[in-house]
Every structure is written in C-alpha cells, then in structure tokens.
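Format notes (please read before filing issues)

Several people have asked whether sequences and structure tokens are stored in separate files. They are not. Every record keeps both together, in the order shown below: the sequence lines, then the token lines. Line labels are part of the format and must not be stripped during preprocessing.
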Amino acid sequence: DDFALVYDRRNRAFHKKLWDSSTKSWTTRWRAPYSALVAKDGSTVWAEDASGKTIASGEAGVDDASVIQSAIESVRLEATKYYSIDPTDNRRNYIIPTVLLKGKFEIKQKIDIPAFPSGFEPTDNDRPIFIRIRGEDAILDCTECVDDEVFHIHGSSAPWIMEAYIENIRAYADPNNPTDLLLLEYFSGEYKNIKAYGFRRLVVMKTGWDPYFVRVWGMCYPNDSTLGMFHIIPTDYDCTNNVRLIKCGGLVKSTNGWVFRSDDESSHSIWFIHFHTHDGMNGDGALELSQFKGEAYITQQSNITHPKWAIYAPSKKVHISDSFIGGPVKITTGIRPNRVVNSEFITNPSNGNFEFSGASISNSVFMGQTVIKEACKVSNCKFYPKVSNQDFVLQCIPSAAYMTTFENILVTDYSPYDHLKHPCNTLILIGTRNHDFVSGQPSFANLEILSYKTKYGIYIETGNSVGSEADKVIISNARRLKINADGDYLASECYLIYSEVSIPIVFAGENIVVGEDKFTITNNWNNLRFLGDCKFVTTGNKAKSSGTATFSGDGSTADFEIGAHGLVITDPSKIAVKVTPVSSDAIAASPCVGYVDPADNTKIRVKFSSAPASGSENVKIVWYAEVIS
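Then the structure lines:
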C-alpha cells in the first residue's frame, strides 16, 4: 500500500498517511506518534487523543492516575475497531495504541491494565488488546500510592496473554509505604529505560512468556528475605519462561531481600545480560536461584557483586560467561552440567567461598577460596588468595562416582591484584577438613604451584578414612612445583605434598620441575608413584647434594665413609649416589661405587674394587647424591 507523509504541527513531526486499498481512500488514523497524550497544564491534568479530542481531565496531583487510566482504556477500546482475528484481514496487524506521558504525575492509586478494555466483550478467539506506555520526561511520584502496586498488567490465562510495552519512566516511592512498581501476570512484552527508587519491588512476575527488560534499574527496599527486586512468583497456571534482563540491575537498600529471586520451580531459562549489582549493599544477596528449575545464563560483562551471596543456586544449572562475580557463590549439580567460561570471581573468604559441582569451568580467574566438588572439569584457570591466612586457595572434594579433572591451572599465594604475597595454610586441599577423604581419583594435568609464604602445596586430608589403592591423586606433566616459605614457616614445616591418607600419588608424563629452596618434598615417600621415566628435576639443595672427600689409604681398607648426604629423605631405595675418583691412587683402586650407609642412612659411603695404596690423604673423590623415585 502507498503512503504519504503528513506534518503534525502540534508535535513538529512527520507521520505516515496510509492508503487503504479496501476502501480506496486515505486513512488518517494514527496521525500522531501516540494514540493519547497525558500532560499537565497548571492545576489541570488532561488526556487527549491523536486528533486533539479530550479524553479525560481532572485536578492535577489528585486525579493523575485516573486520567492516565482513562487514556489507556480509551485508546485500547478504539483499537478494537481495527482488530480482527481473521488472518485474511489486514487489520489483524493493527498498530499497538500508545499513551504518551509528559511531565510529572502523582500516582495515588494503581493503574490497572487487564487483557481487554472495559466495554469490550471478547470471544474465545480474541487476543488481548496490547498497550504501549511511553514517557517523555515522565516522572511518577508514587509516595502516596494506597495500593500494593503502581501498574498491574495482567491477562487471565492462555491464550489471553497481556502484552505491554512500557518505556522511559522514572518513578519513586516512600520506602516506609511498601509498594511494587510493576505487577505482571500472564504477561509478555518489553519494559525499557525504567528507573525507580524507594519501591518494595521493582518487577513482580507471575506466569510470563518471553518478556524483555532493558535498562530497568532500581534502588529498592524488599525488607524480607523472601522478596527480590526482580521477583518471579509461581502460579497455578504454567510458569515464567525465557526472561531477558538486559543491562538491568540495582541495589537492595533494606536489611533483607535479594536483587533477583525466583520462587517458581517450573520456570525455564533466565538471561542476565550485562546485569549489574554492587558491592556494599544491604540485603541477603544478589541472585537467589534455589527454587529455580531451569537454566540461568549470566553473560556479556555482567557484574554480580554482593558481600553475602553473589549467586546462590544449589542443585541448579547456571552458565556464566564473560562476567565478573564478586562475592560468595554456590552452584552445585543440576540436571545438566553447569558452565563457567571467561569470567572473574573475587570474594573475601570471611564472607564465603566459591562452590561448584557438576561444572565445566574454563579460562577464568578465582580470587578467594574455591571449592570444586564432583563431576567438574577445570581447565586454563588461575586461583589466587584474596587475603592472608586463608585456610586454602583451591579445595578439591573428589567423588568415586564422578571424575574431577584439572588441566592447565595455576595455584599461587601471590596476588596480581594487590601485588602482595599472602601466606596461607594450603594451596590445594584435597578432601575436607576433619572429614573423610572422599573416594575418587582427582586428576591434575599441567599443574603449576607457586608458593612464597604458604605451608603446604598439596594437602591430602584423611579424617577417619585410611584410603585404598583404588583411590589416587594423579599429577601429570606438572609444569612447576615451587614452595618458598620466605621466613613465615620453618623449612621443616613446609611440604610440597603432605598426605594424611595412604593413597597413591601418581606422577606421570614429563619430568616434574621442583624448586625446594625452603621446604620438604613430602612427608611420606612411600605414597609416591612415578610412571615411566617421570622423576623430579630439582632446583634447590634438598633433593640433591654433592661434594668432595679425601681419605688416607692403608693398603687394606676398600670401604670409606663419605659423611652426611644432607638429603630430604633417608630411604636408601630413594637415593642414588654417584662417585667419581679424582686422585691417581683412587683411580688405580677403581671402579668404585657410592651407597647409603646401612648403619646410618643419613650418611653415604664409597667402596673401591680394591684397597687403595697407603698414603696420607692420597684418595680423593667427587660425589653426587640425589633423591630418585
């Protein structure tokens, strides 16, 4: 169909004038960018339609809500004239009526928007008459609202789903007069550019399909642990599905309450896209998903921060990508695996930990105490402490039923955020404090441990369990394992691996680089297993030692004591001794071998094939001792 552009002097804008092929004439409806305008003129509040005809008027500050209500009802009723369910009728795609609010309004009673306007009798085939409410410098003063909500937008049941479009609204309420801004029931639509202060809840959702919220922001006072600024509530009919929260968020100002809470166990997907909350808030936390059944997606530079709970989602499925999480997290096994990628987590352990199970975690950074339980796959991640004296940096609680694997991870007590070394008790804790070692085979591939002030690199907790050969810790292709107590602990107190349970600790793959300047490698070498040619390549002086020794031959003695080897262990089966003769008499009596003194395994000896000739200090050798697998 053809159209012409008509200039609207009142609004200083061009609008389309449509050619109606069925009537062979130009139609002049929808001449303005709105169906109704609501504004104030001194002491009068009034509403007029697009042609300038007055719809309703009243006393400003007293009748504002009723005039807005009249405008909404009028344009929706007018829209029914151009509405048909007949798919061959061009009127099926009618323009959604728009009510434009200009200026400041005092809302003292709720604005009720049901599926159908008053005066219209729908048939079973009819669908709701939608509405668009757009603000132009619109401010709603709701401090004296006597109802529980300001806008009540509601259908009745499918297929009568009420679709509304509300945008460009600023509103404020009295925190001492609990009021919700939007109550949405059997609904859909889009809600954009809404900012609110002082309300109990910003948005209450009851059975909705595919609603979009864009730049909806608030500072609210839920003041109850069962309430959320964005709150999904269950109904007897169906559930709320596919909610999109885009560039939304806010702050809880009351003692209790959540930024987002879902109590609908039947709900499906919820998307938090560039969703923001802030640290230092009051309330119980940011996202409460414990009653949520479906999948939650936190993505696109979302910033979920709260000192109590950033995300509380036990037994739920949550996907986190390209986001920042500041505060404790509990995301445990859902119906299908959780996923975390390209994200950053920071919290003070005094507030709580990051806890995951049933998760695939990759390319992320964690600062605080991170707990990884069963059925997790962790790759390309870094784990740092947030403060000093943490009990651990990374905890693995394995399970016999589900494999937990780590690949390409760094665990250290040096923080790149404050450039400080934070002394901790343990970098990697396997098991739980004061509990049994949980059966399983946690696997670490390409592991890097860097400790400057921490007591234990890897600590394996036993509790009441004694472990078994079926349980093991697997470390393959470790890149670097370095402990340097740096004066905070004695060398005798620091261990690369300390195990309270008699289970194998299997090293496989390439040689493992160990820097042991100020620590002991392990408290129990009998637990260690080395596959193939894998062995420790040490960089300090605890796992290897060397020196020279000189003896006086007597022509009959072939076995001499070299002295203390100074190695970290004394098990003869774990020590290799190499001796090289230097003086001519030593060379003449060779070959010679070095070995651990069976009478005192802290010392080593050398034995020649024949007794060196008599002389004073005529037998000189060079020796080297090393811890082996």
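For reference, the curators noted about this record: Residues 64-79 form the longest helix (16 residues). The longest strand covers residues 180-197.
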